[in-house]
Amino acid sequence: MPNRVILLVEDNPSDEALTLRALKKHQVINEVVVARDGVEALDYIFATGAHAGRGAIPLPEVVLLDLKLPKVDGLEVLRRIRADARTRLLPVIMLTSSLEERDVVASYACGANSYVRKPVDFIEFVEAIRQLGLYWLVLNTPAPLGAEP
User: Which of 65, 78, 90, 148 lies 20 to 30 Å (CA to CA) from residue 107?
Assistant: First the structure.
């Protein structure tokens, strides 16, 4: 089985380091690709721009997507993922510090699979990442990407 990649889309270096540390602490051995803005995330997913040589397959197993990103925000990244038949079923978890109701509603309206608020407390954050990894990488059976109902 090929290595199942996690795409972490995070522009805050502290949150990036915290997420990577939490994944490592809980022995999540998946390769983690980090995109630091929406354009970089879309380039990775669709194998364009700086990632044009990598090929569009394999897609990430799961995308951990921040809401507030430079260049292209998280909601627009999500819209573009859902608009393409190749990526429409790709699991996308909004991992953000926002608890604004409009952000939660907009995320689900755009097709987010889950909305997780980043806890401020380190121990809570590590536990949230552990649970995300357990559910999305171990327990969840993903839909075959590119499949149509």
Answer: 148
Integer angstrom CA distances of residue 112 from 24, 65, 105? 25, 9, 10
Higher pLDDT: 55 or 79? It is 79
Q: Is the pLDDT of residue 120 over 80?
A: no
6-139 CATH pick, 3.30.200.100, 3.40.50.2300, 3.10.28.10, 3.30.565.10: 3.40.50.2300
Rg of the chain (C-alpha set) = 14
- H-run or E-run covering 102: helix 101-109
146 in Cβ contact with 90 (< 8 Å): no
Which CA distances in Å does 47 have to 24, 90, 93, 119? Answer: 26, 15, 20, 32
Q: Give the amino acid at 86.
A: R
Which ranges of 59-100 does DSSP label H, i.e. alpha helix?
A: 74-83
* pTM recorded for the entire structure: 0.89
Condensed to tens digits (0 to 9), the pLDDT of residues 74-111 reads 999 999 999 999 899 999 999 988 889 999 999 999 99
